[in-house]
Specification:
- It is a single chain.
- This protein is α+β, with helices and mostly antiparallel strands.
- It has a domain of 80 residues: Chitinase A, domain 3 (Roll).
- Strands 1, 2, 3, 4 and 5 form a five-stranded antiparallel sheet that branches.
- It is extended, with a radius of gyration of 27 Å.
Length: 185
């Protein structure tokens, strides 16, 4: 019989660390799967609600259900912008020219000016350099050709300014640092 060799403390710790890392990866994978499932369930719930609404309106068809879903998504996006305005993160501005601190709302149109996507919204800072160049300097009502690279055009429908950080917060941070420095002396 071969004698079992006892592990050193360092070897046991390494083994435990390996197990913890493996478990951590498994939990991360499960969290991603749960998030994906949550998104799927949310999409299904929205489709079911839209189907019910379409039935109440007198006609259930895929077209009607899809229109209701798009309308619901547009309202949700409008609500997010309104919330950001209420929280003073976004400000309405008289200068409707898109600049570095702009938040843009638009809609995508095809060649015949039919609405393909009724609402698209983004902060200019979130775009690629190429897209930033295409949008910067444009104004409310302007059209940007082939914005997404799919042949569609973007019509600018709203422009907001992203608010600057409030002065009082900066002052508070400065005072807080000074107070900590004073307590150290």
């Amino acid at each position: 019989m071969a004698k079992e060799q006892k592990l050193t403390a360092a070897q046991r710790i390494e083994g435990l660390e390996g197990m913890i890392q493996s478990q951590s990866q498994n939990m991360e994978f499960l969290a991603q799967e749960i998030n994906s499932l949550r998104q799927t369930m949310t999409a299904l719930a929205r489709r079911i609600n839209a189907t019910i609404k379409a039935g109440e309106a007198g006609g259930v068809s895929n077209e009607v259900v899809n229109k209701l879903l798009v309308d619901e998504n547009v309202e949700e996006l409008k609500g997010k912008v309104n919330f950001l305005i209420e929280q003073k993160v976004l400000e309405e501005t008289k200068d409707q020219t898109i600049g570095e601190r702009s938040f843009v709302v638009g809609r995508e149109l095809d060649e015949e000016k039919n609405v393909v996507n009724p609402r698209m919204q983004f902060a200019l800072a979130s775009l690629t350099e190429e897209a930033k160049k295409a949008v910067t300097g444009k104004k409310l009502g302007d059209i940007i050709e082939n914005f997404s690279g799919d042949g569609l055009v973007l019509e600018i429908t709203e422009v907001y300014k992203i608010a600057e950080e409030k002065e009082q917060k900066k002052e508070f941070k400065t005072e807080e640092v000074e107070t900590k420095e004073q307590s150290l002396t």
